[in-house]
Structure formats: C-alpha cells, structure tokens
Design goal:
The complex is a heterodimer of chains A (93) and B (351).
Chain A lengths: L2 E3 L24 E6 L5 H16 L2 E6 L9 H10 L2 E3 L5
Parallel strand pairs in A: 2-3, 2-4
Chain B lengths: L4 E3 L4 H11 L12 H8 L9 E5 L4 E4 H11 L6 H11 L6 H6 L5 E7 L1 H5 L14 H17 L21 E3 L10 H4 L7 E7 L3 E4 L6 H12 L14 E5 L1 H9 L4 H11 L1 E3 H7 L7 H4 L6 E3 L7 E5 L6 E6 L7 E4 L6 H4 L1
Chain lengths: 93, 351
Amino acid sequence: MTTEILRPDGETGAAPVQLAAPLASLAGVTIGLLDNTKPNAGVLLDRLGATLAARTGARLGRRETKNAAVAASDQVLESMTEEVRVVLTGSAD
Amino acid sequence: MSEPIILGDETPESLWQMLDSQGWGDGLPIVAPTAARVDAALRLDSGDPDEVIAVLEPRAGLATRREIAINAVMAGCPPEVLPVVIAAVRALGSAEINLRGVNATTHPVAPLLIVHGPAASELGFNSGLGAFGPGNRANATVGRAVRFVLLHVAGAVPGPGDVSTQGQPSKYTYCVAENVSESPWPAYHRTMGLGVESAVTVHCGENPHNFHDMESNEPTGILDKAATVMATLGTNNAPISQGEFFIGLCPEHASTIAARGWTRDDVSSYLFQRARRSLSEVRAAFDLLAWDEWMMALREDDLVPVTGSAKNIKVFVVGGPGKHSCVIPSWGMTKSVTVAIEGSSTEETRS
C-alpha cells in the first residue's frame, strides 16, 4: 500500500531572477562596486575593480550599503541601475 | 497546492530516502506528513488553509496555514499546538525580524520562541525545570516545526540559504514557555502592551549564556554577574546599538530581586548601567560601529553600554529550582516581535 506525502516547501511568491547575459567586452563599461561594508570587503572590491579597469578600460562606480546585515536600499539600487552595467558585490567575512 | 509525493510505504527507510532525495529535514527522523495527519491539525484551526501567513526570505516562500501544518506534522507536533506555530511564523514575517539577514548570516542565530499565557500550560509547554532541554513534546516539536518552516519554506538550508559558520544547537529547536506562575512580575506579553491571554515572542539570538549566583541576597549581586555575561566583545550586540538581550531569570533569582521591590524595568535599567566596556576597548575591537549618535559622541575614557537603550534589555522568568539564569544576546540587526496566539481571548472578552 502506498503513502502520499504532502510537500513541506510549497510555492514561492517571487519569480526566479534570471542572470543578465554576459557582456562581450568591458571596454568603456561602468562596473559598479557595491561594498556591503563587511570588514575588508572594500579592500577586496577596490583592488578587483582597479585591476579590471586597468586591463579592460572599464570605468568604476562605487556605492556602499549602510550595514552588511541589511539589504541595499532602493535608492542605492536605483542609482546603480542608472549608472552601471555590471556589479561586483557579495563579499562575506 | 503542490502535487503530493508517492512513497511505497511509510517505513523509516522510505522516509529517509525521501528526505535525502529532496534535501529536506534536519537529520532526525520525521513523522510522515500525510493528508490525514495534516487535515487533523487544520481541523482545529478556523482559518483558510490557503491563507498566506507570511512570505519568508530568502526563498520568498509562501507560508500558508497548510504548509505550516505540514511542517508541524513532520516535526511531530500534536495537532493542538498548530496556533502557536502559526503565531511564530507570523512573527517571523515581520519586517523587524529581518528574516533574510537572520537566515543568511554567518552568525549562528536561531529564533527563540517564548510562549506566554494560559496556552503554555494548557498545551503542555515546559516553563520550569529544564525548559531549554529535552523531554517535553510541545517545546521540542514546536521549536522544530518552526525550524522546518525555515528550512523548507524560507529556504534556510545550510549552504545555499544559511551560511552560519558553525551553526548552533538551537537551530534544531528553540522553544520555552514563560514561567508566569513563579514570576513576581506580570506576564511578559502584558508588559509589551498585548491585551490578550496568550502570545508568543520570537527573539532571534544566540544560545543561552548561563550565569550562576548562589551567594547574593541582593539584586545587585545577581545582576552584576549577568552584566559581565552581557558585556563581552564577542557578541554582535557589542558593535550594534539596536541589539536586544533577553534575560531569562530563574524563579529564585527573580524572587530575590523582586523582594527588594525591583520591577522588570528596574532590572533593565540596572543592567543598562552595569553592562559596559571602555569606549577605547570597543573601538579597538571593531572597524565598524552601528551605534546611536549619542554613543558615537562618547569620549575615549567613557564607559559605553552594550546596547543603546534599557528598553533593549528584556526580562522574563523561566526554569525551575536552583540558581542558574541566562543571557540571550540577539543577532544584532533584528528586533524581537510578540504576537497573539489565535483563539486567545482579549481581556475585554474575558470580563
């Protein structure tokens, strides 16, 4: 005799976000550095950004979140959307 | 509603195989959430099973009454405790909790549930001896049910949805009841302004940090020890002024303190004054301080409190005979939430 088990995960309220298609070149593109203010996150991002800019001719745009434990504000996200094509972020401890 | 999963049988081996293949569960045996068992729980709930109680991050999972009941059955809950689980999930959906952060942080934070009012004793929760420990079905399974909701609905799976560096044991289950019958003060939820009989508080924090005091006949002796436990540089609260501390006093400590006329607010105010470190010491320990403005303006030789306000120090009574109490620091960027348990009468309707 079979048993039916109800799923414990259920539906989600948000459609999965699709990653944007990769750019063919970073030349002339503005790369956004989104520093979540974790200790040393800025050091890593700035070094990475400078290296990419030197190698590809990309420009850099920088923003910070108020605190690493809360998501970036709509204001920060909107201003980045207007200025940059690529974002580097996600540094943890 | 999602399609059910068909198993050949309900043996432990089949259930283990199902959990493994789906990535569900907490590593311990479960009760099979069959439609009959879930319906039995929902029959005691007057709400619409498809009502969304909360949208839980990071998965943006829809926590309907039915999904909550499924997880409660899996965790081994008796049907009658479902309103407590629903209330806790409702609290977790509050913006103040900051659930995305709670679930996604490297900190070991877990939601502590504190059940208040007559529902606690009526439903068989343990508020007394060993309340944080094993041996009581309501405490164990309600805390586990909330963890299951976080794992399955919210997607707080270690790795993709929960990157806690070490985790902590309270991520399995973390639920106690307030020991109102041995508390010298009104029930905690009454002091938070809730005019209902029964409620649940959710506080996202660390495991309890014990302190013992077997010597003091005065409040200050007991609370000075609590203050030393609070004033560590190792908690998130040290650099975050909005962080809360829950102080779980055992009945004997609470009695000694109240015998001198101290109220719950007196305890919070005293701890706010005593749980401090030198500003220079704290500044040396942290690159970033998420402090209130007045704390940032303190001088180097000032003592700085480990939270921005006495109101962030919450006091409740829990436990049995003996002289051990505890401090439960928060994760930092979160606030506790207290909500009514559905079916709980208001003062007005009782009178």
